[in-house]
Amino acid sequence: MSQNSHQEQNLLIPAFLQLRGLVKQHIDSYDYFLTTDIKQIVSSPSNCCVLSDYNPDFYLKYKDIRVLMPSIEEDAVISSITPHECRLRDLTYAAPIEVDIEYIKGNKIICRSGLEIGMMPIMLGCCNCVLRNKSEEELAKMLECPYDPRGYFIIKGVEKVILIQEQASKNRIIVEIDSKNNVVAQVTSSTHEKKSRTVVQSKGSKIYMKHNTLSEDIPIAIVFKALGVQADQEIFQLVGTQKQYIDALGMSLQECSILNILTEKQALRFIGSKIKNSKAAKTGRTKIEEARDVLATVVLSHVPCENYDFRAKIRYLGIMVRKVIDAMNDPKKVDDRDYYGNKRLELAGQLVGLLFEDLFKRFNSDIKKHVDKIFSKPKSSKGEPFDVITAMNKKMITEGLNNAISTGNWSLKRFKMERAGVTEVLSRLSYMSALGMMTRINSQFEKTRKISGPRSLQGSQFGMICPSDTPEGESCGLVKTLALTTHITIDQPEEQISKLAFSLGVEDASLFSGDELYSPGVFRVFLNGQPLGVHRDADFLINSLREIRRKGKISEFVSVVKVEEEQQIHIACDGGRLTRPFIIIEKCKSKVEPKHIKELTLGLRNFDDFVNEGLVEYLDVNEENNAVIAMRHENISEDTTHLEIDPFTILGCVAGLIPYPHHNQSPRNTYQCAMGKQALGIIGYNQFLRVDTVLYLLAYSQTPMVRTKTIEIVNYDKLPAGHNASVAVMSYSGYDIEDAIILNKASSERGFGRSLIVKRQNSDLRRYNNGLSDRLVMPPVIHGDNPPPSIKKFHALDKGGIVAVGSIVQTGDVLVNKETPVNKVDDIEMSKLTDNDFKPSFTCFKGPNPTQVNRLFIACNPEEPFLIKTVTIETRPPELGDKFSSRHGQKGVVGLIVQQEDMPFNEQGWCPDMIMNPHGFPSRMTVGKLIELVAGKSGVFQGKFKYGTAFAGDKVIDCGEILVKNGFNYTGKDVLMCGTSGELVGAYIFSGPLYYQKLKHMVADKMHARAIGPKTALTRQPTEGRAREGGLRLGEMERDCLIGYGAASLIQERLMYSSDVFIASVCESCGNLGYEQWCQFCKSRLNIVKVKMPYACKLLFQELQAMNIRPKLNLSSS
Amino acid sequence: MDESLLSRQNEPSSYTVMNVKPVSYICGWCGKENEFKSKDELRCIGCGYRIFYKKRLAEGMQYEAR
Asked: Does the keyword Nucleotidyltransferase apply (chain A) (predicted)?
């Protein structure tokens, strides 16, 4: 029974993902931004109105803001757009932002609603997207794939993803030990207005406060005094009256009296004199006032402080000092920086929110500038009174947003934030690569630093972050992937939670003296890192809050954590925390019963019902510390509070493709995660309608024989990338060493590994400023069978000057025969131009093989009036050197393609598609691959898919039994006959189906050789790189070899004669370079000699001369 | 080199093709055939859609099986 219900409860995961989807976190966060955050930004007091310094009567007030559905305005017609149209036409998928305003015009108050202030890029699948809640049929009508992950933006036709950014959490105290062995407690305060860092630090035996607005460290006692703490006793009480605190604080207090600072005023004056770039002189304020201002607004800015009521700040500072002293006495109290509970993930919604607020502020300040300019001038009595709407620049917000998303540069002046690489182009190499990108987490750490801490897997990442999916090399461990069921929270309003906490018996901390705060049995309650108050019965508060959460009265993502050692309760409802769902266990019984699962399968219930009814709940990384989580049903004990839904969810979606990953050596799974993203396959149901620059597709993609649950959940079975190849694990011919594989020629002719390369080429007919535009020209007539190549390249064009759809083109063939006017400046009428006023600027096809023009379309967008896009498809069968890989990090290139006649076969006539060398196994230890083969083979005989789900999956014993029942060897070995001699192969051969992926690295794209070819203009040396048909470099090390061997002539030949020989004229008398027959320096032609030297050498001499260095050549004959 | 090979010297007179015989394109939305001159605004007369596909070669093509 327990086994059975365990089997069933993993049905919850598809239910979870059906509801949430893998990219739900992106979409949720953007929804929150569009519906809630944007309104909060506009209604916040610093943004909601614009006033004028010159006209006190004037005001402009924003009453509401909305983002509409995506649309485009063309020729004064507003029409709605679909994402696919944006991709085709290079448009931005954006929606107008509308505001309702109230302002003064003349002496009247005017209300306007629905005023557009810019365009907001819309994330696909969010609440304002046309794809939201559409059926497959409706999506098909919009030419959209139902399995597309969405969650990205389309800017100028390019799909852009805002990657998840990992950050240390804001507004939390983190205690560390710095390089000088001092204990440091720091807080990064972040509010809507400001961002600052406050540090409390031990230095020797004293404690200081550090802040970037202050030029010096301030003794902590002075800070307390400046904040209005009068008595030293009060300071002790705020920190703690136990011996260790008094001892540690003693020296700091002494420092105060040494400096003779005894009163609040003295302390403020002391701080005031330490403020960096003080504005006191300018504004006419005293240093005391300025210091008080800094303490109120900049230091610990996230702690509320109204009317200079510093009590909350004093308590917060007390906590920080206490933490420092604790850590000084007990190094174990230092926080772990890499602990995932101290991390927050920033998503698209938050990032765009920051950007929008910045732009909106700029938008308002621009309006203010304009308004001030108008009102500063004397009023003209005549004419229309001034209307603010004319001062609004719609383009600013639109372009600001578009530029940031398309370049990935997030620069916010307000926070001094300058971040690059926030966005990336969505990789459409395969379905998996797109999915993998959507679940990727980027870390802000520098890649060059050689620290292992942030790179290594942290215990607290369990279940939240995929342990396998990370790149190798420099960004290893810094770029991570979300696990399957991870959900990232969004901001939740604090008021409701704090009210609830107070009504559950939390007492305001300001009613307590410092001493009482730290008495045993009293728990200090924090809400989002902010001290809320104290509670005398911690368990009551925690249990009630959790009960209320399970009842669905507060958000399911609120976390309540009890930290016993610190006597603290942390309630969190902020955004960016990682959470994942668990089944609740009460009294050793799972709350999810078989009847619930039955209702789920009948469709009477969805995942949210499980959460709302308190059967399943979300725990974040911190709350997991308060839970006892059983991995499986049989592990449930008396203490157990939660049960994992299914262990395989600790892996991400890319690692989920691997069958039997728990049988593989761990790095192999990581390799597969990198390769799974390079596999050719089906990209989406709309793949042949898309217009990506390059698209690699597999012609006859097959769904894998051995599946995993993840494969079905992420729809990889519907958009697969690979083939079920019959593989014989044996040696053959010697062309299979070093992981090379032998391919069956007949298989490849049947379509194994056949790929399609879809390429798109753009050419646009531009219109120039003088009114002229590019034109299309009829191609020259081709006479005879063998025209010269310069004419032959026009062969595919029709009379329209555009390539005919369906024709075959080769490298260099013209696709669009375009001509550009020579004169793009002067005003000339188009009709008066002659043919000589145009120069050809045709677009050519590039590619290794003959290729078919598949389709061609013309479109326009506001920037380009006539856009021609040509899509070509090339079919490529596998060839020698193409790269293949199984799903176990076992890659190899094709070493030999063998006629089917020569392949080994069994007595039934079966013959492998591929032969793999057994030497790949012992050192790699990819046992999962062996099991995949056995499971696949048994599945073939049963006519069923087999499952290799992580930590579960079909058992090898069962698969072996099936094989035996079908007359095969239990271990999957076969008797094969040699294809060439017909003799029995002298060993039993392990053979069966394995899922093989064709990777994008293909010989046709890499093959390169050249004899004489193009040279760079400056140095006259051969060009570099395959794209420019470059030469193959004889580098320094190769040169060293030749020198060592003494092959002087060979060096000369390689480095000069075959590269950039130049015959220079040198004057023997002065040693300068001269003309052919003339030395300008000696004004003579007598001593000119011809010298062979590399052109680069001659260039160097001339460049030296240009900077007043005269290289002199002393010639001697050899 | 290329310039001399363009239409104008092989043909008695040169035309921008748009002036000779407009090629018709199929609207990506309603399938209606549209004819443009290059200066024309790209807009379907039937439905206002702005993406147009070129018709496939009328004559048959023979491809090498690869």
From this structure: yes
